[in-house]
Amino acid sequence: MKNLFNISIIASLLFTACADKKEEKQSAFNYPETYRDSTVVDDYHGQKIIDYYRWLENENSDSTKNWVIAQNKLTFDYINKIPFRQKLYDDLKGMWNYESISTPSKHGEYYVYSKNDGVQNQSVYYIKKGIDGEEEILLDPNTLSDDGTVSVSTFSISNDNKYLAYGLSVAGSDWKDFKVMNLETKEIMTDFITWVKFSGVSWYKNGFFYSGYTPQKDENKLTQKNEFAKVFYHELGTDQKEDNIIFEDKEHPLRGFYASVTDNEKYMSIVASEGTSGNMIYLKDLTKPNSKFIQITNNFENDTWLVDNFENKLLLFTNIDAPNNKVIQLTLDNVAKENWVDFVPEKETKLESISVAGGRIFTTYLQDVSSKIEILNMDGTYHSDLKLPGKGICHGVYGKKGENTAFYSFSSYLNPSTSYELNVETLEAKEYFKPAIDFNSEDYISEQVFYTSADGEKIPMFINYHKDTKLGGNAPCLLYAYGGFNISITPSFSVVNAVFMKNGGIYAVANIRGGSEYGEKWHKAGMLDKKQNVFNDFIAAADYLKENNYTSTDKLALHGRSNGGLLMGAVMTQRPDLAAVVLPGVGVLDMLRYHKFTIGWAWAVEYGSSDEKKHFDNLMKYSPLHNIKEAKYPATLVLTGDHDDRVVPAHSFKFISELQYKQKGDKPVMVRIDVNAGHGAGKPKEKSIGEWADIWAFTFHNLNHTIK
């Protein structure tokens, strides 16, 4: 491969020289001329692949920065001319302007929660003494930056309720800095921990465990591969340099580690992973000085997590021999598998989570993409079901063993998240907080249908719309899906989608394979060499919506983010005729090189790696970047952030460059690059409003639907 520095200089010169040219094939839009470097050639198992846009992987080069400026100018000039863009912005800002309060957590006599008054970029953390006490600001992230791009990502209060540890993220980065606050005085302590990633805070004695990396080069922080993770212990009041390494693996640089400690600080677990699914788990008895970690599982074929302990008996959540998950019980005296006892056996319905509050155990199940909660006695026997407000999602009931008060929340596509206070002894629940929002759910319809995919599999899909929307095949419709990494896409309320429906749109969500809506079997049916099932499921969803007169090709838009962005890229290159608009967000679009950046190596368990021929052959069949052909593509708005250090923006940069080069139709194919933004988490509300005003304006305009 040519020296990247030289390529960057050449690309910069060519980009500048050609920026004002307009080739004949680009008759509809004057796309910025993007240099195609044919000298960068990779050999994959004997097959030569030209990487024309390798220079765009260097986000710090002048050529890439100039390219970003030119592409954004084209995109924003186009969107800002759409007459109803301002109307959509006003709708979003108006509907988003409502007070929201998170489900609180109880810490001794104090209650802690976050709240947003409706216009704040970041929610503010509050504390109050007693459920009806006077609230006091605990931590306001809005004071940490002028533009709201610093967010709080990790938030953990010590078991003695004296300290708060929290993580700060800048511009949506996965990298975190940890700080500590004295809860009594509200003073920020001297503790400051950097180079933290994919970590929680697990309190133990006068400090906590966390996961991180040794310091690296700052200039490559957003793209370099993450290797040699470690678990550290930080004692309060000391410098990070004094933190002890508790767990590491010098022989396996790509293993990540996550530490957790039971609430009573008696047991510790380390979960080791080499990808996004499958782990090995180690347990340690913290009550015994110098005790060693005991390995419980020895491969990455399944997932296992420590839940809690009842005296010397430990509860582990696992999918070993249980694709729908179960909870087992064991002791550290004899951890052999034959001594495991099923505490919550596997059922036909997927077990999502388990929690303990007061003298009850709460198990949350996902049944046809809606929540069902069973209440168990402390010996694991069934007591009753928790009555929920309807079909929707409750992410579990949370409290503490010694407390009689617990909380849970409930939401659906048409109902904003409402929180409830539960008396654990009597099981009586009362509404704690319900947001007052300018959205009348009774004016909307949410229905669940099941359609048939290419191989005969039945796939669930939710379809949501205003009751006055005419379903004659002429309504604008947005179809969303994810389809990967064992992640379920469950019903939740969104102002963004509410504004789309308010303006005449149908919002549909397909629960395609690759996720975990029906357990690990559903996940495995959409990964590795079965990834095409995911694309087929999504295409079948689009066909169902059209065949059943919800919409038509000219009125259909497709959207997905991250792994869902890959879904968009694969579907539009396989079926350019499927829809009128495609919105690939922060997508994994270069399937041959994704594992070369940041945490991308961890996705090989899901996708396979081009380093192996069998996976390379499969990846080449659908890699969006490598399957763009000359065709009439739908209107496309690729979305990314310049600080995305999970799916680096080079994926989107390279994809849109090739798409613009090979577009034969008259529809716009553009990229919107959010400056000072990451993968999505922690994005300021004002940025989100502006982004979605642009997305909906682009979408409605290219669906030929006018907003009044």
Task: Describe the structure in your own words.
The chain has 708 residues and is of the alpha+beta class. It contains eleven helices and 38 strands. An eight-stranded mixed sheet has the order 31-32-34-33-35-36-37-38, with helices on both faces. Strands 3, 4, 5, 6 and 7 form a five-stranded antiparallel sheet that branches. A four-stranded antiparallel sheet has the order 8-9-10-11, with no helix packed on it. The relative contact order is 0.11. Mean pLDDT is 91; it is low at 1-27.
Helix content: 10-25%
What is the distance, rounded to the nearest whole angstrom, between the alpha carbons of the first and last residues? 53 Å
> Which structural class matches the secondary elements?
alpha+beta
What spatial order of strands do you see in the largest sheet? 31-32-34-33-35-36-37-38
Whole-angstrom Rg: 26 Å
Largest beta-sheet characterization: 8 strands, mixed
Q: Please tell me what the overall shape is.
A: globular
Low-confidence region ranges: 1-27
Average pLDDT over all residues: 91
Proportion of beta-strand residues:
25-35%
Count of beta strands? 38
**Can you count the helices?**
11
Main attributes of the structure:
single chain; 708 residues; alpha+beta; 8-stranded mixed β-sheet; 5-stranded antiparallel β-sheet; 19% helix; disordered N terminus
Quick summary of this structure?
This protein has 708 residues and is α+β, with helices and mostly antiparallel strands. It is built from 11 helices and 38 strands. The strands form 9 sheets. An 8-stranded mixed sheet has the order 31-32-34-33-35-36-37-38, sandwiched between helices. Strands 3, 4, 5, 6 and 7 form a 5-stranded antiparallel sheet that branches. A 4-stranded antiparallel sheet has the order 8-9-10-11, with no helix packed on it.
